[in-house]
Amino acid sequence: MKPIRFALGLGLALAAAPALAQQAPAAPVTATSPDGTLRVTLTIDGDGRAAYAISRKDKPILAPSRLGFLFTDVAKIDRRLVVTGTEVRDADETWTQPWGEWASIRNRFRELKVHLKETSALARVFTVTFRLYEDGVGFRYEFPEQPNMARTNVAEELTEFAFAQDGTAWWKPAFLWNREEYLYNKTPLSAVGTADTPITIKLADGTHVALHEAALVDYSGMAVARSEGTTLRAALTPGAGEAKVRKQGAWTTPWRTLIVADDAAGLYHSHLMLNLNEPNKLGDVSWFKPGKFAGVWWNMIKGEWTWARGPRHGATTANVKRYIDFAAANGIAHVLVEGWNVGWDGDWFGNGNDMDFARPTEDFDVKALVAYGRQKGVRLIGHHETGGAASHYEKQFDKAFKFAADNGYMVVKTGYVTDAGQIERVDADGKTYREWHEGQWMSNHFIRVAEAAAKYKVAFDSHEPIKGTGLQRTYPNWVAREGMRGMEYNSWAGKNPPEHEANLVFTRMLEGPMDFTPGIVSLKGEKDSNILSTLAKQLALYVVIYSPVQMVADTPENYAKFPGPMKFIRDVPTDWQDSRVLNGEIGDFVTIARKQRGGEGWYIGAVGDEQERASAFKLDFLTPGKRYKAEIYRDGDQADYRTDRRHDIVIESRLVTSADTMNLRIAPGGGFAIRLVPVN
Questions:
Q1: Could you tell me the residue range of the domain that residue 541 belongs to?
Q2: Which of 424, 488, 499, 501 is catalytic?
Q3: Which of 56, 100, 389, 635 has the most CB atoms within 10 Å of its CB?
Q4: Same domain, yes or no, for 370 and 437?
Q5: Has residue 648 been placed in a domain?
Q6: Is 424 an active-site residue?
Q7: What is the pTM of this model?
Q8: Is 529 part of any domain?
């Protein structure tokens, strides 16, 4: 369905007034979402400062919040603004995802454009565009080409988010050395420091809000910093130079987004961020098929194998053949291999200039392995670890992705292991700069990766990435990313706490797919340390933490010890027709149901925190009149992540219908997984 567009004729055409110390406040400009739930109001005060406010069901969400910019070389845009006109249009369309958590997405919104002009000598003009949905608002700045902004050097945005009440916030710190890989803080909103987005807030009246951004292209990533009270202000990621963003001619910012819902489940169900991105630019991507992958990986994470060549090198022909055999026996489509290429020897952390992504080591016979895998229906996934040498990687794009395509790789995994602010960029003159992971240059780098990979029909899964902002809609070969503390942290000291995944669903997972690398059935990390999880929870993660390329992350030897749980891992799909959060509270517990794409089966996963909990939910999403066999993998009655009963699991089945309700125990550190298969 094509968008329906029409003007509502607000017809504000205010003549630019002469510069005055004080001007009469302009009449507010306002618009509501198509259903009337959300309202945006833009005002100009007596100093000519522009501010916007958002209300939901006539209750304020954001009090008047400032708009504007600081620049490195010219006067700021802040005061002496007038509204010169407005435009409103409605749109309602439905589009289809080639893969995802939902097969189809409805995109229904009302758009308000407010045109602004300075009455000062520079007379700069810009537009603030709002899109109002039933479940949130996105807005962005749009600057046309104009004489006084031929070149623009942004020092900072003055965009504010002045929340109208306090609440509880879940947030992780921004601009620290370990990129985005920090645990979430839970504090009052009024105690937030400098936070990466998305930041999720439960306001005092119970309203849930997720603040983030969409379509981060050719711009610096936005964090937020509390200025006073419950007001947050945009804080752009630094660049290698004085300006955080450099532009020429016409330009726009990413969308600043607020998802607003009654409860945590409503946040997850929103499609706001995807809808604010441009449609697919790559054309037919049917060559990408979602699926699972095993990997020569966990033994490296545990310190038993090495990425570098030597006596404990993991990426050998013999080891990879064993993993191919395991994958083939369990219907797993891919095997990831890390450490397969030249460049891993020595100190590669933050120093990836020796990496060669088309040159295997002498003990990794790629041709023989590709042929062996082809006989068994298994493809390889190569790892492109840049060590932060992003320009060095770009120089190899063509040969790297050609090598991948020539050897049948459908997916590569990219990595940028280095400190924040230490991505290496080399300009055309050979001068070296250090860029932040989420700066403007890196936002463009990842688009270049997507385009270079697509040329050879290769998808990629990025680790140590820029944050997710819905660009998988525009570049659907960007199939997953890490961007948070994944399973690897459970191997090391400072493990992820049991609440971690229940936090992720309503924070990090609002960004899009995450390569969390689940399925450590041994529940063991380095030095035989215990993972803070039950066995049933490891199965639940295949449903709860979404990715179209899910890893079967433990070793073949460990899976052989758990044939019952391994059946669920074999059965669970990675592509979905529909997804529903059945219940949940941020950081406490969540239960998610997903319907497989191209079939009638449903899968349910639930995870909790450190407490024992119960999850009660209706099965009314099932087809009425059908009976389903529910294959249940739940925590045993004595299961507990803190004891030697963490492996206790009960595997049972029962017949259910859409009229039934289920109520299952979640052990401390536990969860459950269910497969629902129609039987008539």
A1: 291-574
A2: 488
A3: 635
A4: yes
A5: no
A6: no
A7: 0.95
A8: yes
